[in-house]
Amino acid sequence: MSESQAPAQTVEDPFAGRRRNWRVRSPKTLVATLSILLLFIVLGIFGSQIAPEDPFKLNLVGRLQPPFFEAEGSLDHPLGTDDLGRDTLSRLIYGARISLLAIAMVIPLATVIGSILGILAGWFGGWTSRVIMALVDLQLAMPAILIAVFLRAIWEPSLTNVVIVLVFALWATFARLVRGETLGLKEREFVLAARTIGANDLRIMVRHVLPSLVNSIVILATLNVATVVIAEAGLSFLGVGIPQDSISWGIMISQGRGVIVTAWWLVTVPGIAIIVVSLVVNLFGDWLRDFLDPQLRNIQR
Fold first, then answer.
1. Residue 24 gets which letter from DSSP?
2. N or C: which end of the chain has fewer CB within 10 A?
3. pTM for this one?
4. Beta bridge partners of 87
5. 185-215 tens-digit pLDDT
6. 7 secondary structure, DSSP code
7. In this predicted model, what pLDDT tens digit does every residue of 226-266 receive, in sequence order?
8. What sign has the CA pseudo-torsion 277, 278, 282, 283?
9. The dihedral formed by the CA atoms of 282, 284, 290 and 291, expressed in degrees to the nearest 10
10. What phi and psi, each to the nearest 5 degrees, are found at residue 81?
11. Phi then psi for 75, rounded to 5 degrees?
């Protein structure tokens, strides 16, 4: 065979496998990710018992104490105190509960509602798809903050309001993603084979189409975790989310913004907590995607 007829060789990145191995397959990375997630869950559930001090206790004499590693800091308050003398570490631990509850309620509800409507729109098409996608367009055209203000006018600020607003804001992204992938999947050979043996629409959607959508749904759900935490902070900042007399990472940032120049830790500490939780959830979602995908799972390390 001449050189001109020789098949072209594909140039591969020799480090691609190593990068994937470090990112989601390394035992150390996975253990660290799961450890931080477990810590977050434990703090969210048992925060009131773990917190070293009462997060609501006022101490005006000890207000705005810096963290322990600064000159005027003390191990009595490792992460300092706020402008009312409340212990930042205790408030950080206690505040994990609201973030965990928001994630645990909003993400599953938005995922289930959006996925069901998306698969129905993609599978049946016609007027079903037109009605559902009209609702999607309506949701995307209506800012979620308007719903938050409307609920605030009816009810007092609460976690329930936050859940309603964020589910309303996020379900459409799941519906659009699932509809688009369902349109392609329903023409695949395994779906035609299921039709041939007499499977009805419900069975095909549940047993054949939905499992093929799991990876995309999981990835989108994990990416929305940070959105939920940040959105809760924004709603609380505007006074239409969690009540200001409660404790959440978003409220901590809101209350610390006025003294950020002199007391940087009041904003930085909960901000870092939000970033870390968002990062580890995304890493876990990345690993879970590879674990659920047979092609990626069988890649040699």
1. I
2. N
3. 0.77
4. 81
5. 888 888 788 788 877 878 888 888 888 888 8
6. P
7. 788 778 877 877 777 777 778 888 888 888 888 888 889 89
8. negative
9. -160
10. -130, 165
11. -70, -15
